[in-house]
Amino acid sequence: MSDTHVEGSYKGLQDQIEKLAVDQTNIVTKFDVLTNDVEELKKVVTQFSDKLAALEEVAVDRRRLKAEIKVLKNRIDELYVIVKDSKEDESVSAEDPREVESCHSGFSCSSKVAMTTGLDRDTIRAAYEDVRNDTSPTEWAVFKFEGARIVCSARGSDFTEFRTHFSDEERAFGYLRLQMGDEMSKRKKFLFVTWVGPNVSVINRAKMSTDKAIIKDIISNFAVELQLESQSEIDIDQFKDALNRAGGANYGTGIRDL
């Protein structure tokens, strides 16, 4: 083999090595650019996640504001009835023995308001203790008005059935046992609901506060109390969310409005 041929082969090999070196440099450069792009993408994803969290907080605030407005409206309705009844009472002498009755409601001493709501204590207490018994399959009880008395109208374990017991024309109460936590930490929590259907009269709405205080003399142990006025609010996920936010039991001292 001639020296010229060897020299040519050597030079060709050098050219290939130099080309590979250039290609390697280009690859490294592109990899650096790709790395920077990935870092930028991470920042964008983080910002997007933060914005989603902020939007969720706004949604919670709006739901809370809606609930507060609803409670305020109910209070105004109650005051309207109180004032209306008070005006009607002015036409009757306070010394009239027919009108001197127990003012248990704190609203007025008229016979219309002073009629005491009664309780079927035995059935209500039995249902209450049944729901609280972890060995019982009963997970909820519903209490309704039967004339001037509150009675236990139903018990059960299927939440779908529980939802069927609240009509738009009724007032009612519910007591539920819900399993919370995960596989590592299961626990039972209790929830008390007050139902006032959208078609309930203003007068009966005003009476609800007094009647609720009466039944809570028996149903006294629960983590959260909810005031519900539409079928969409009777939702097990919303119930569990309220229990998660409430933490420990308050034994009847708190109200959470959906």
Written account of the structure:
With 258 residues, the chain is an alpha/beta fold. It folds into two domains: 1-88; 117-257, Severin (3-Layer(aba) Sandwich). 52% of the residues lie in helices and 19% in strands. It has helices at residues 3-89, 111-114, 121-132, 159-163, 202-215, 236-246; strands at 118-119, 140-146, 149-156, 171-182, 185-196, 224-228, 256-257. The chain has a seven-stranded mixed β-sheet, with helices on both faces. Strand 2 (140-146) and strand 3 (149-156) form a beta hairpin. It is elongated. Residues 90-114 and 249-258 have low confidence and may be disordered.
Number of helices: 6
Under the CATH scheme, the architecture of the largest domain is: 3-Layer(aba) Sandwich
CATH topology of the largest domain: Severin
Q: Which range does the strand content fall in? A: 15-25%
- CATH superfamily caption of the largest domain: Severin
Q: Tell me about the largest β-sheet.
A: 7 strands, mixed
Order of helices and strands: HHEHEEHEEHEHE
Note the overall shape. elongated
Strand segment tally: 7
Estimated helix fraction? 40-55%
CATH C-level name of the largest domain: Alpha Beta
Tally of structural domains: 2
**Runs with pLDDT <50, length 5+?**
90-114, 249-258
Which class of secondary structure composition applies to the elements?
A: alpha/beta
Average pLDDT confidence is: 78
Radius of gyration: 34 Å
Span between termini: 94 Å
Strand order of the largest sheet: 1-3-2-4-5-6-7
